[in-house]
Design brief:
mainly alpha, Farnesyl Diphosphate Synthase
Length: 334
């Protein structure tokens, strides 16, 4: 799925992938083999996804953590990388159906290209492939991690869908939601990599904590780019979250700094369906009430916690790359 073109941050992320470039080639091959069938329609969808893939950050995390062991990356590490990417992509496919998204990464989304029915069923096919590959590992720890991760991700999506209608989310709700929706899979990606490397239980737990905090910081940065970016880094127009009635940390912070009446007025504007020309006004509201600075400070704090989680991991080139990756997560798009 990866071909080296990693959005606007290609050169930066490619540096993190350099030590695992051969492992990524094995991952790409195995990913395609996992999804290939005798049915042309499935293979057409797979071919389309291979042209519209994302950054490959989750399998990169898995393979980097797998490199922390004394041995070379084994077949189980490649399988784990495939699983986390399958789970991630399946979630995005279903997201695009639910959100009625026309674009994903600058390309027509899967439902826009193949219609909702094919998109939903293909997402289900990917999830079934996750289950098959997980069982192939013959490891109950994998089942524990991935079943909990899948449940958290589904719960995060459900909470977001319900709260988007009511617009009654606060900061704690938001952080819990993105922890489930995004950080859970970062956590699993790192834990699985550590398990395949044969690391001790304490190290695997530490890698999971690193992934959890990294995922939260990563999602906050995504949400900030949605408001304050130029749209190129995310492959979708600026203000997409507002149009989908999603409250994110910069906006929540700004709302907490104004009176109840003003906050209700802003929420009512979002609830009735915000227009493109109104997005600029909301962004100005967030900036004038320091929502952008608050979100930046919080994001940087969580990224530091991710780095601190690595304190028990022995020093190495891979550990340094994981530290640098936490820094990259909060500056990307600049």
């Amino acid at each position: 799925m990866l071909n080296g073109k990693l959005n606007s941050n290609n050169g930066v992320l490619a540096r993190f992938q350099e030590p695992i470039i051969d492992d990524l080639k094995r991952f790409r091959k195995q990913y395609s083999l996992t999804l290939q069938t005798e049915f042309k329609v499935i293979n057409r969808v797979v071919a389309y996804l291979s042209r519209t893939h994302g950054k490959g950050l989750r399998p990169t995390l898995t393979l980097l953590c797998a490199r922390l062991g004394d041995e070379s990356v084994n077949d189980n590490a490649i399988r784990a990388a495939v699983i986390v990417e399958l789970l991630h992509e399946a979630t995005l496919v279903h997201d695009d159906v639910v959100d009625e998204s026309d674009q994903r990464r600058g390309f027509p989304s899967l439902p826009a290209r193949f219609k909702n029915k094919i998109a939903v069923l293909f997402g289900d096919f990917m999830l079934a492939s996750v289950l098959r590959e997980t069982l192939s590992a013959r490891d109950l720890q994998w089942l524990d991690i991935l079943s909990d991760t899948s449940r958290r991700m589904a719960k995060g999506e459900l909470v977001q869908a319900v709260r988007a209608k009511r617009l009654d989310m606060d900061k704690d709700d938001y952080l819990k939601m993105i922890g489930d929706k995004t950080a859970a899979l970062f956590n699993a990606s790192c834990q699985l990599g550590g398990l395949t490397a044969g690391l001790p239980e304490g190290s695997v737990t530490a890698l999971g904590e690193y992934g959890e905090k990294l995922g939260i910081a990563f999602q906050i940065r995504d949400d900030m780019l949605d408001l304050f970016g130029d749209g190129r880094g995310l492959g979708k127009p600026v203000g997409g979250d507002l149009k989908e009635k999603k409250l994110t940390l910069p906006l929540l912070a700004a709302l907490s700094r104004v009176g109840k009446r003003e906050a209700s007025r802003i929420k009512a504007r979002i609830r009735r369906g915000i227009k493109r020309k109104e997005i600029k006004n909301i962004i100005e509201f967030v900036r004038s009430n320091n929502g952008d600075n608050y979100a930046t400070e919080y994001m940087n704090s969580v990224a530091k916690q991710a780095v601190q989680a690595l304190d028990t991991i022995p020093d190495s080139l891979i550990r340094k790359l994981l530290v640098d990756l936490a820094e990259f997560a909060v500056i990307r798009g600049k």
